[in-house]
Amino acid sequence: MTVRSQATNQRSGGSERKRALVRGMTSSTPSYVVEFDARTVYDFLVSLAVEAPEDQDLLPQDRQWLEDARASLSPERRRDLDECFGESPKAFCYATGALAVVTPTARTAREFVGSLATADTRSIVREMLGEVRRDPVAAAQLERILDGADEEIAEFVKRGEEYHAEAIAEFLAAPVAWIDRIRGLLGEWVVRFEMVEERVSRIIERDLELRASDRRTLAPPELIERTTGGVRWLGEAGVTRVVMSPSYFARPFNYLYAGLDWRLFAYPAADEALDRGDAMSPPPSLIRLHRALGDESRLRILRLLRDRDMYLTELAQQLEVSKPTMKHHLTQLRVAGLVTVTDQGAQTYYSLRRDRLSEAGDDLMRFLA
C-alpha cells in the first residue's frame, strides 16, 4: 500500500533555542510529497545489508533466521554479499534500493527479483546512480560512459560521494558483470527471505495503520521526524518525493536511499507493530533508552546538547574522542529517541529531544505497572 501526503516544507523564521552556527539557510524551500510505501521488497534488501544481527531489534526467532540464512549461502554468494552489501566502501550495491522505488508494481521480493532479471543494464545503472544524475553535466557524462567512454569514469566518480568512489568506478568499468552478481545473490536470497516474508508483511502493514493519525495531521517535516524517531529532514534541491517505508529488519535504525528526484527512509517499524507475545518482556524502546543512558560519555553528550545544537565534529572535540566513536554514541542516543539528527545536505547536526527525556520515567512506570 502506498499512502501520500503532500505539503510544502516551510522552515520557521525563528527559534527560542540556540542553533548550530552554520545552517546553510536559503531564501526558498522546495515542496515535496511524502509517500508511505509498505512493501516487503524494502525489507528484502535491508535484510541483506544487516552485518550484525545481534545489533538489530528483532524477535529472537528472526535474529536466528537471519544468522542461519547468511551462513547457508554458498561460498560464492557469501563473497558477493560481503562485497556488494557489506560495510566496506566497495559495497555499493545497496543502491539497488533505487530500483525498488521506481518499480512500484513489485510488491514482493520474488516480484522484484523478476523485474530485475528483465531490466536492461543501462536502466539499472541510471537508477543506481540517480542521485549523481541530479547534476545535468554528470547525467550527460554517464550516458557517454554507458556508450563506451571509459576514460571519463575517473572524472565522473569525483562528482559523487567520495566514500564509494572506488566502488562506483569498478561498477562502471564492468556493469554487466556486477549486475549479474547482484541478480545471482538476490535470486539465492529470495528463497530464504520467503520463509519470513508473510510475517514481515503483517508487521509493516500494522505499522502503517498505527501511523494513520500522524499521516493525516502532521506537516511533512514533523511527519518525517516522528516516523524516523528523530531524523529532521529540511529538504534538498531537486528532491520532490520522500518515500517512507516501514521496515522490520531495519530496527532500530533508519536506512537511507537516494535517487534522481526522491529520498527513501526505510524506517524502523514501531514496537507496537510486533507481536511479542510475552507480557513480561520489556518493550524494546525501554531497553534502548536505558542502554543509551547507561554510559558516562553519552550522558556528557546530552549535557552538552542541553545548551545548543552541535555538529558531530564539535561534540568529538569537546569529549576528545574520535569521530567514529562519537558517531556510535550519537546513533545509540538517536535510536533511543533522546536526540534528533538534522540532515541538511552536507551539514548534519544534533539536538536534544527534551520531550523524550521527560517521558523516560513514565515508560518505566508503565512497564512496572
Could you explain how this protein is built, in words?
- This protein has 369 residues and is an alpha/beta fold.
- It has 18 helices and 9 strands.
- The protein has a 5-stranded mixed β-sheet, sandwiched between helices. It has a 4-stranded mixed β-sheet with strand order 3-8-9-7.
- The protein is globular, with a radius of gyration of 21 Å.
- The chain starts with a strand and ends with a helix.
- Residues 4-28 have low confidence and may be disordered.
SS content category:
alpha/beta
User: What is the strand arrangement across the widest sheet?
Assistant: 1-2-4-6-5
- Per DSSP, what share of the residues sits in E-state strands of 2 or more residues? 5-15%
Please bin the fraction of helical residues. 40-55%
Gyration radius, to the nearest Å?
A: 21 Å
Biggest sheet architecture = 5 strands, mixed
For the termini, the CA-CA separation is 37 Å
What form results from the Cα inertia axes? globular
* Overall pLDDT metric: 84
Total strands: the figure is 9
SS element count, helices: 18
pLDDT < 50 runs, ≥5 residues: 4-28
Helix-strand layout with pairing:
Layout: E1 2-8, E2 31-37, H1 40-49, H2 60-71, H3 75-85, H4 97-101, H5 109-118, H6 121-128, H7 136-146, H8 153-157, H9 165-173, H10 175-193, H11 197-210, H12 212-217, H13 220-228, E3 231-233, E4 241-247, E5 255-258, E6 262-268, H14 284-293, H15 296-305, E7 310-311, H16 312-319, H17 323-335, E8 339-344, E9 347-352, H18 354-368
Parallel strand pairs: 2-4, 3-8, 4-6
Antiparallel strand pairs: 1-2, 5-6, 7-9, 8-9
